[in-house]
Specification:
With 391 residues, this protein is α/β, with parallel strands linked by helices. 48% of the residues lie in helices and 11% in strands. The protein has helices at residues 22-28, 42-45, 48-58, 75-85, 99-111, 119-123, 187-205, 213-235, 240-252, 267-279, 283-288, 291-298, 303-314, 321-338, 345-349, 357-364, 380-389; strands spanning 11-14, 33-38, 62-66, 92-97, 135-139, 151-156, 161-166, 174-177. The structure holds 5,6-dihydroxy-NADP and zinc ion (ZN). 5,6-dihydroxy-NADP is lined by residues 39-43, 71-73, 97-101, 103, 140-141, 143-146, 149, 151-153, 181-182, 184-185, 189, 192-193, 196, 254, 269, 283.
């Protein structure tokens, strides 16, 4: 097991009807003048925003509301919010929604904390933040895991890339998670979330050094639970047990615990981001569309690892490792298909992608200036071959 540092300080408040506790949590963490960020209106329609603001009022906490965060959230939106609120003495940022609102809140929290660095420089790894306002979350979708993660992902419309930056400052102070809030999710978003949760484990599981039984068992168990309860939630959107299991799994698959003691790979996330940046493809769909091609391209690097995944996660009984490995890849692909996810990039964005392979490869490789992945290190030609195979 490689050495590691693990710090996951987010207080999780989990269960039905917990949103009314938002005010007391904000107060506990010192918020007196709160900036609330939310998305396109689902939290207004459901009445959640009213519940949250009332709980702040009950605690005598001042607040400002900014809606309009879009899925695949934009750097330019975050920068405008920072500009609009930089002189308003905000001391707490609260996201009410999913990964897009949370990531915008994290970026705004860094921007409002007085770091004297352009926000995008953090995303481009040119600098690290030295401070951030505290962030809280009221979660409405089990997916990105941003409610406990250390990253914030934004799309820059100027350079056409989607990038995240990681810092301990991005870890929210608290996350309120009521599974009932997820009942209203469109099934497509539920499916995207299921894929994303699986991929947060898979992008860590397929690493070069994998002699970590505790980490493996955690990861395999989480993946089995997401597959099982994800399917149940698709069939019955108001299944509280299923919604609970995947909501908690969503946090655990991306708070870092499923990758401890080994290098990260995360190449499939890198394949997905150019699709989201260029075509606004939903994050989970961008991952489902590229994982099968990636897996078939790289599995020979460690056939035994793919066979372990097939046997432990999918219950594949093939005794031959290579046959098991391929059966595990096929089972994953079939599962994605069964929940309505694309399994090729043509499925995801249509025929127009056929002419864009070079562009996607340029975006993914930052114009051939970087490699991606660690399970198999992928250079420009590999990246292009995988996009081609994913057509
Ligand atoms: O905007 P509203 O109206 O709220 O609607 C949203 C949005 O259209 C809707 N929705 C969410 N909860 C709902 C609901 N509709 C009805 N009822 C509810 N309860 O779902 C749509 C998607 O919302 P979004 O916040 O975009 O979803 P998600 O949580 O999947 O977040 C995706 C973003 O997170 C990033 C992704 O790249 C993407 O930009 N990620 C963030 C990570 C992190 N910070 O750690 C890690 C991930 O790998 C990922 O990259
Ligand atoms: Zn993800």
């Amino acid at each position: 097991m490689n050495s590691f540092a693990f710090w996951s300080p987010t207080k999780v408040v989990f269960g039905a009807d917990t949103a009314g506790q938002t005010g007391s949590e904000v107060k506990f963490f010192g918020g007196t003048n709160v900036l609330i960020l939310y998305g396109g209106g689902s939290v207004v329609k459901s009445g959640l925003l009213d519940t949250v603001t009332k709980s702040l009022e009950d605690e005598g906490i001042n607040y400002h509301c900014v809606g309009g965060v879009q899925p695949n959230p934009l750097l330019q939106f975050a920068l405008k919010v920072i500009e609009d609120y930089k002189d308003k003495d905000i001391n707490f940022v609260l996201a009410v929604g999913g990964g897009s609102s949370i990531d915008t809140a994290k970026a705004v929290a860094v921007g409002l904390a007085g770091n004297d660095v352009p926000l995008w420089d953090y995303h481009c790894r040119k600098a690290l933040p030295t401070a951030a306002l505290p962030v809280g979350v009221v979660l409405t979708i089990a997916a990105a895991g941003s409610e406990t993660s250390d990253s914030a992902v934004l799309t820059n419309t100027e350079d056409g890339t989607k990038r995240g930056f990681n810092t301990p400052f991005n870890r929210p102070k608290f996350a309120i998670m009521d599974p009932i809030l997820t009942y209203t999710l469109p099934s497509y978003q539920l499916a995207c979330g299921i894929v994303d949760m699986l991929m947060h484990s898979l992008d860590r599981y397929f690493a070069p050094d994998t002699d970590n039984e505790v980490t493996d068992e955690l990861s395999e168990g989480l993946m089995r639970a997401v597959i099982k309860y994800g399917r149940m939630a698709m069939e019955n959107p108001q299944d509280y047990k299923a919604r609970s299991e995947i909501m908690w799994a969503g946090s655990l698959t991306h708070n870092g615990i499923t990758g401890l003691g080994q290098a990260l790979d995360f190449s499939v996330h890198q394949f997905g981001s150019p699709l989201s940046a260029r075509y606004d493809t939903a994050h989970g769909a961008s991952l489902a569309a590229t994982w099968p091609a990636w897996a078939r391209y790289v599995y020979r690097n460690n056939i035994a690892r793919f066979a372990q995944y097939a046997r432990k996660v999918w219950g594949i009984t093939e005794s031959d490792d290579e046959a098991a490995a391929l059966a595990g890849i096929a089972a994953t692909e079939e599962y994605f298909r069964s929940i309505g996810m694309p399994v090729t990039i043509t499925d995801a964005v249509g025929d127009r992608v056929k002419d864009d392979i070079d562009i996607l490869s340029d975006i993914c490789s930052y114009n051939n200036t970087r490699t991606i992945g660690s399970f198999k290190v992928l250079g420009y030609d590999d990246i292009k071959a995988i996009y081609q195979a994913a057509l």
